[in-house]
């Protein structure tokens, strides 16, 4: 078995400051590759801004909110179902 180390026998290490500063991360790099193509114009109806669909919602009873959100959910499902057709 090895001999136990005596704490007084430990060699001292000298810690010094680095000669040069450490590198600092810079800003993120821009994405590589070609720019995304402009979206194609669709022949479908122009989507109504969300603000207009929910206009006056704050003044309506909370019970009416369900119907408004369900209608918006149905609309979004219809729109998303057309993605594969593009």
How many E strands? 0
**Coarse shape:** elongated
Estimate percent helicity. Answer: 25-40%
- Number of helical elements: 2
Q: Note poorly predicted spans.
A: none
SSE arrangement:
Elements: H1 50-53, H2 62-81
Model description:
By secondary structure, this protein is mainly α. It has a domain at 50-86. It contains 2 helices and no strands. The longest helix is centred in the last third of the chain and has 20 residues, at 62-81. The termini are far apart.
Concise overview:
This protein is an all-alpha fold. 28% of the residues lie in helices and 0% in strands. The longest helix is centred in the C-terminal third of the chain and has 20 residues, at 62-81.
Jot down its keywords:
86 residues, mainly alpha, 2 helices
């Amino acid at each position: 078995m090895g001999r136990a180390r005596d704490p007084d026998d430990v060699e001292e290490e000298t810690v010094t400051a680095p000669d040069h500063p450490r590198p600092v991360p810079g800003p993120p790099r821009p994405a590589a590759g070609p720019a995304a193509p402009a979206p194609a114009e669709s022949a479908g109806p122009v989507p109504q801004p969300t603000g207009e669909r929910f206009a006056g919602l704050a003044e309506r009873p909370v019970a009416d909110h369900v119907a408004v959100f369900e209608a918006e959910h149905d609309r979004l499902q219809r729109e998303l179902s057309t993605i594969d057709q593009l």
